[in-house]
Amino acid sequence: MQNKLQELTDQLYNQGLAKGREEGGRILSEARAQADSILAAAREQAAGIVADAEKSAADLKVKAEADVRMASAQALQATRSDIENLVLAKISSQNATADPEFLKEIILKVAERFSATEGTDIALVLPESMKNQLEPWVASSLSKALGATVQASFSKKIAGGFTIGPKDGSYFVSMTDKTFDALICEYLRPVTRKLLFGE
């Protein structure tokens, strides 16, 4: 009987042990499968994060390069424009309209055209700073050349150049240093740009 009991106990023990091993193996297998699944998902998520970061970095690099190219182009254009304006300023009216002889030639040409088309007496407004050089010339040489009376007044408001119009003041044409600058620069700008930059 003792043997039978021992046999039965051993059998139950072995069956329980086998069942426990089987259950433990199944649990271990499920745990490994779950761990592998979690690890695969983590790797996939990490790869996605890295891919997104690389794409963001590439997009940022492309945008930064485009911004730098645009800023460089704008800076170059602004510099070219500044150089061009400096060159034009040097050869513009500030030198030309300050020369009394040059101004006399321009006034005479404009007044001749004006007198021929209008047929009226002319009024001139000239720079106050040139009164000594131009007043005698207007009173004698210009009036004689035009065969008409020329009324000249001098103004501190005009730094260089002149304005011309009918004596009745109905209108006037401005050839001051500012309008002369605009006129000269309009024609010189393309030539200057070509000389400076080969455009």
Give an account of the 3D structure.
- With 199 residues, the chain is of the alpha+beta class.
- The chain folds into two domains: 1-90; 95-197, 2-Layer Sandwich (hypothetical protein PF0899 fold).
- Helices cover 75% and strands 11% of the residues.
- The protein contains five helices and four strands; from the N terminus they run H-H-H-E-H-E-E-E-H.
- The chain has helices at residues 2-90, 93-96, 100-118, 131-146, 177-197, and strands spanning 122-127, 150-155, 161-166, 173-176.
- It has a four-stranded mixed beta sheet with strand order 2-1-3-4.
- Helix 1 (2-90) crosses helix 5 and helix 3 (100-118) packs parallel to helix 4 (131-146).
- The longest helix has 89 residues, at 2-90.
- The chain is rod-shaped and about 160 Å long.
- It starts with a helix and ends with a helix.
- The mean pLDDT is 77.
Give the full name of the CATH homologous superfamily of the largest domain. Answer: ATP synthase, E subunit, C-terminal
Strand content: 5-15%
- Continuous helix count: 5
Number of domains: 2
Specify the helix fraction band: over 70%
**Through-space gap between termini:** 119 Å
CATH topology (fold) name of the largest domain: hypothetical protein PF0899 fold
CATH class of the largest domain: Alpha Beta
State the secondary-structure class: alpha+beta
Low-pLDDT segments: none
Order of helices and strands: HHHEHEEEH
Largest sheet: 4 strands, mixed
- What is the CATH architecture term of the largest domain? 2-Layer Sandwich
Major beta sheet, strand line-up: 2-1-3-4
Global mean pLDDT: 77
Radius of gyration: 48 Å
